[in-house]
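Multicopper oxidase: structure tokens wanted.
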Amino acid sequence: MALLVYLQSAFLAIVIAVTSAMNDYKSFRQPIMYQSDCAKQITKLSTDSSSSGMGDRPTAMIEAGELRINLVVQVTRFTSDYVDFNTRSYSGHIPAPTIKVCPGDRLVVTVTNSLEGGKSNNTNLHLHGMHLPPVGNADNVMPDVVPGGQRIYSYDIRQDHPAGTFWYHSHTHGNVNSHLQGMMAGALIVVDRLNDFPTELAAMEDLIVILQAFCIENCSNKHDDLQEAIENKYSHSRKVSDQKDDDKVWDTDLEVVENEADAPLNDTSLLTVFANGQYLPKLNFVAGEYKRMRLINAIANNVAELVTTYGSGCMLEVIAMDGIYYTRPKAKEVIVLPPGGRADVAIICTEIGTFYLETDCASSRNKLLGLVNQHRVPSQRIVQFNVVEREMNDLDIDLDITANFMHLPSVLPKRPAYMEDTIGTSKSHPLIEKDRQYAFEFSVWMENDIVFGVNHETLNISNINHSMRVNEVQEWELSVTDYRKESLWNCNLDDNATPATGHLSSSSNCHTMNHPFHMHSTHFQISNMDDITDPDGVLFDLGDWRDTLPLFRGGVQIRFTPRDYMVGNLFAHCHIASHADGGMAQLVNVYDSETRMWVRPLMTKMKRKVPP
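Answer:
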């Protein structure tokens, strides 16, 4: 079946780059990589150290340097066994190239916009989770790179920056959903330091896993619709007058195969997930072998609940979330990954056979995450694990090495000193002055249409909503309130409840969608939460550090300390891309002690326009 859709932003005269075709069901491939000289040396030395014997530690001194790369935003044809379409990409790659740097490196990225015509093709660059200034040519998402334009971003990465998994994507307000849904995103890795990188981790195969997904038609969430998203039909910030500027048209040339019995897109109303641009790729395991998988949820609007095949003997050991190591590995049966979130996972399989990394949209988690298929990835297989027995050689027999030869580190690398613990180990936290407290509410209400905002206001980029002084601990109360009458779902839903079968109750406030909280330029620590927020510890634990936090029921308190590199205006927003485009965001200001500026008074009781 071939469908033709004319978008507001592309150009038939330009040669369209084509991604490598027909990689579905084949060996799991890694994105192409741009890495600094320092990152190359660190990777080699840490690998050599792990293979030379446990406990050996390289003593070489490696200097940080500079990595210069070019990212060209261009039209690219995505091809697979089941669906082909024209979309936007970075330099013709889906997913985009992986960028690998060292702490202390300078990263210079030249973004060239080769697209033609129309505001839906405006773009820019955001390094999600990185501790970078939100001003100038650093992680400043206010200026756009217009079609035919170019911008040079320069990032000086701190010497003490956390080593971990981050990612990058376009952040032009009003176009985020369009560009992310079109699969324009890539991984960014800050490599570990040699002096505190466990040899157990260095011995593991290190894999990037970028999750991306789209729906074809009759989608539960209209913003997941592939053609509508790329066209940017539902952008809240895009006025009818803007469409007159988009005088170029783009033939999406969407082709879908629906006549095969096992075609994953037979039900085109559900999201279908691709890992590194592949459908259900194969990954070979040796029983007893750990692999490190850097899972990145680059899906625009949906939470991914990740599991391994039930009863498979494959186990998930989480070593880091959002680029920040845990103190020690945590065994998890399910990893809830909000849009924008990352999980570094050591995966081991002890049984021989064929198993899977899967998404599991379990109805038992309705009360935590919302109803099935409401901003949640449907249950499906993502990556196939082919687990075989390890071959033994004479050396193995002589050394009495068993198949379970790989181990987890007992202690993981420490976070930087500037990310100081603000809560201790108990719930009795020290008091924070009122002028450092802030109430941040994701608000949903109805006017002519559904409206997404913060504290019952939509984003106004001319307005600073809150200000913070550097080196002063901040305490924010995060919450979600849906003022629509139809949102008052009875939270005593049975396990099979769906939007069609749920019951309304005027005495409850069980919202039907979650809203991941993300703040630019910093991580934050979870310092407290309501009892109903996460009673089973599925989402997060007290003391965890995140940069993207799923919010649904109940409130969550976070603490963090703005540092001098954060001086300027930065965004705090919902990471459901369509919600952020719709105005579910605020601008906050960070200032130093020498800066004199007006600070908006704390609203202890938020003034809200409550619908009748």
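Confidence is low (pLDDT under 50) at residues 1-14, 397-403, 489-510, 596-612. The longest strand covers residues 66-78.

Cheers.
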